[in-house]
Structure formats: structure tokens, C-alpha cells
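FAQ

Q: What does a record look like?
A: Structure on top, sequence underneath. For example:
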């Protein structure tokens, strides 16, 4: 008899962090039944463009601590859903 998804999730959440992390990619990959090559190519081009912007200095990088502070500040200013 197949196990209920809630039971599987409960068991998975009891695993150590590393084991839970190891489950993420295979589970997400199992949802991708079709690969849109156009999308894959568009992402490659976007990544390349962003890397070139970083290398040329056209884009200023922000340290994670600063980005996190800004994002949390924005979240506090958003109206409740």
C-alpha cells in the first residue's frame, strides 16, 4: 500500500539537514518532464549577459548582508496580504 504524501514529508523532515538537502534536486528534477530548449538557451544568454555586466563594472555587486537588510526593509513596508 503506497504511503501518503504527508507521511513521507513527515519522515523526510526528520532527516538530518544534509539528507533533506540531498532530496531537493531529484524531487525538483522529477517535476521537469519537458525541457524547453528555447528557455534553456535564453537562460544561458541571460547568465552570460549578467557575467559580462559584472566583469565590465556596469553592474555593482551588493554584499549579501546589505542585500538582506534592504529586502527585509522592503518586506516591512509592504501592506499585509
Amino acid at each position: 500500500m503506497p504511503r501518503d504524501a504527508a507521511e513521507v514529508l513527515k519522515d523526510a523532515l526528520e532527516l538530518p539537514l544534509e539528507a533533506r538537502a540531498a532530496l531537493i534536486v531529484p524531487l525538483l528534477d522529477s517535476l521537469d518532464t519537458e525541457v524547453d530548449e528555447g528557455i534553456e538557451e535564453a537562460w544561458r544568454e541571460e547568465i552570460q549577459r549578467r557575467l559580462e555586466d559584472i566583469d565590465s563594472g556596469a553592474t555593482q555587486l551588493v554584499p549579501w548582508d546589505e542585500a538582506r537588510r534592504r529586502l527585509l526593509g522592503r518586506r516591512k513596508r509592504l501592506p499585509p496580504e
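Q: Is there anything notable about this one?
A: The radius of gyration is 20 Å.
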